[in-house]
Amino acid sequence: MKCQRPGCTGTIEDGYCNVCGLAPAAGSAPVAAAGSGAGTSGSQSRPTAGTAPVAASAVWSRSAVASSRSTVSGRTGTSRGGSGRTRGSGRSHLGQGLVEVPPVPYRDPSTALMAVPEVSEDKRFCAHCGEPVGRGRSGAKGRPEGFCRNCGHAFSFSPKLARGDLVAGQYEVVGCLAHGGLGWIYLARDHNVSDRWVVLKGLLDAGDDDAMIAALAERRFLAQVEHPNIVKIFNFVQHKGSGYIVMEYVGGSSLKDLLKDRRAAAGRVEPLPLEQAIAYMLEILPALGYLHRLDLLYCDFKPDNVIQSEESLKLIDLGGVRRADDEVSAVYGTVGYQAPEIADVGPSVSSDLYTVARTLAALSIDFKGYQREYVAVLPRPDDVALFTRFDSLYRFLLKGTATDPGARFQSAEEMAEQLLGVLREVVAANTGIPRPALSGLFTTDLRARPDGADWRLLPALIVAADDPAAGYLATLAAAESSEQIELLREAPVHSVEIDFRLARSLIDTGQHAAAEEILAALQADDPGDWRVWWTRGLSAIDQGDTAGAWAAFDWVYGNLPGELGPKLALAVTAELGGAAQRALPWYDVVSRTDTGFTTASFGLARCRLAGGDRIGAVEAYNRVPEGSSSYLDAQLCAARALIEVDGTTAPELSDLGRAEATVAHLKLSGEQRASVTRELYEAALQLLRTGRIHPDPSITLMGEPVTEVRLRLGLERAYRALARLAATPEERITLIDQANQVRPRTLW
């Protein structure tokens, strides 16, 4: 079965696409083959203050839980072409085909057991009120069991199961693996299924057997969760007044342990490589999206709860998973990862995605104070070199951790789409190899013009394939803007896409007030539609309001940090506003990531030339790929950049040689070759006259020795060749006069 998602070329394997990693777009819930291993988590999650078991009576509205409003609604797209996602031996290959992630060896279960099963005192907190408990005083060790001084609730950090205990007549306990927010996590053998390794995780502790049975029955929905990146739940059992989840054993290392290992090896805080951290999040986001489509919320995502085993990644610890409409159950989370609104309005899809952004920050930067001064904010870019180098990463994290839930990403697919774009930028910057991909939101730019910035060459909005007017709009592609206006107003069907196309056509013809009326109506219908601000940016830049255009495009960029279109718009806006150095980094990131954006390559070259960087400009022109329709123009511009004499950065003889080599392999017309030859000889003669180079008959340029006489003869021929190709008699006469003026005096 082929994947039906737009732009995806994959096929469905084990219930999931082997390219985009998502479930089929329509139909029943996907089912994937379960892996063979077990999830463990030593994290210390605690219930949010003010919620059950802090306060089981807390009530949250359904609308707050769902949190579906998005300030960047409109179409955000869910697929990018060429993700490179592969699947081998039934498992996803980490890295999206863009980066290699080192595999983590499978860990033998017997080596994962704790030698001494105890909880360190700094991780002992009351499960009822969250206050520290079991702490030592005056040199004496704290007691692992007792009552909280704050609320009087009993606590116990002693294991309830011992080696050899048989749980539910089926699971023989081998030992303790870790201690989590809901109690101890045990390794056991399943005697009913080939003695396979399983994990027992405490679910709850209740003295009422009827309440226990009811609670276990309510949690059985977790057994229906089947996804290749989510630990498999086998069973729910009761043993001596306590409930346990029985799940597969996943032998590997948690992302938290990988961080610890890097720190130990380096002797200092050493974040994961950014590409690797992003690859992890891209691998796990489809799993969260799968849960969200089932109306389930994970609630406690963090590095502790993701395990890498060999080349696969698993989301473990489903003890905190809850239904989206659950208004009474406890919400478990971890300070520094949990969204700030949880205590007031409860969890939502956007709060789950908040934890993903916080986790990415924790993995990729030295995030000191993330549970204190930065508990709900990010460090400033000036304080984090990685944020300065990769602004898109910073913008992604800003959006993902926005205080307003409606300003965050609203689906795992939307978040993954933008994060994949960020990854492409990072990989291209670190390897020097472009990582182009089709966007689901913007076209590429139009054919670039080397002579100056032009906002009309910016990418256009892609029409949604499911829009009722999509077919009609496709027929208008060749029409002029003035003609399109009438055709759009007479469209047989009205749609949002019709309105956006009409607004753009009105801007093209200078009717900005009429365009704004349409945009204001669109914004009233959907206040968060980023396309409104994109189109307003075009209107502002056409009117010369570069400050207004910058503000509009910057807003779009902040909400679509993985897209190249908004970055190119910022670059064009800055250049048109006379700020070449401000435009330079934006042109650079766009052309470096996707050389198909030739507008960015030409813009980068112009900005570098404006700063006197002749060699940098040539490098920018050389980014234009050979298969591009702009390649010839780019190479001619590169040659001219090498030979241009502007009074401040005169070329050397070696630059003239590079220019000759650049045009030597080009298929030039007679006029083009004569023109570049003329420029090359003129530059060489000027360098001779100023003494920057000296006559040398052993060196030739375009077949002529580097002497004044021979260069003049060559220049004369170039002028006469251009005269023969002149379009008018006046131009021909002028060129012949110039040829006579440069002709050297001879005795014959």
What does this structure look like?
With 748 residues, the chain is α+β, with helices and mostly antiparallel strands. The protein is 39% helix and 11% strand. The chain is built from 24 helices and 21 strands. The strands form 8 sheets. It has a 6-stranded antiparallel sheet with strand order 8-9-10-11-13-12. A 3-stranded antiparallel sheet has the order 14-16-17. A hairpin with a 2-residue loop joins strand 12 and strand 13. Helix 12 runs antiparallel to helix 13, helix 15 runs antiparallel to helix 16 and helix 21 packs antiparallel against helix 22. The protein is elongated and about 115 Å long. It starts with 11 loop residues before the first strand and ends in a 6-residue tail after the last helix. About 7% of the residues have low confidence.
Output the keywords:
748 residues, 39% helix, alpha+beta, 24 helices, 11% strand, 6-stranded antiparallel β-sheet, 3-stranded antiparallel β-sheet, 21 strands
Put the structure in a nutshell.
The chain is elongated, with a radius of gyration of 33 Å. The protein is 39% helix and 11% strand. The chain has 24 helices and 21 strands.
Gap between N and C termini: 83 Å
Number of helices: 24
Largest sheet: 6 strands, antiparallel
Which percent range fits the helix content? Answer: 25-40%
Biggest sheet, spatial arrangement of strands: 8-9-10-11-13-12
Strand-helix topology:
Blueprint: E1 12-13, E2 16-17, E3 46-47, H1 62-66, E4 87-88, E5 91-92, E6 145-147, E7 154-156, E8 166-167, E9 171-180, E10 183-190, E11 196-205, H2 209-218, E12 233-239, E13 242-248, E14 253-254, H3 255-266, H4 274-293, E15 296-297, E16 306-309, E17 312-315, E18 322-323, E19 332-333, H5 342-345, H6 349-364, H7 385-389, H8 391-400, H9 412-431, H10 470-474, H11 481-489, H12 496-508, H13 512-525, H14 530-542, H15 546-559, H16 565-576, H17 580-593, H18 598-610, H19 614-621, H20 631-643, H21 653-664, H22 670-690, E20 696-701, E21 704-706, H23 708-724, H24 729-742
Helix pairs in contact: 4-6, 4-9, 6-8, 8-9, 9-17, 11-12, 12-13, 12-14, 13-14, 14-15, 15-16, 16-17, 16-18, 17-18, 18-19, 19-20, 20-21, 20-22, 21-22, 22-23, 23-24
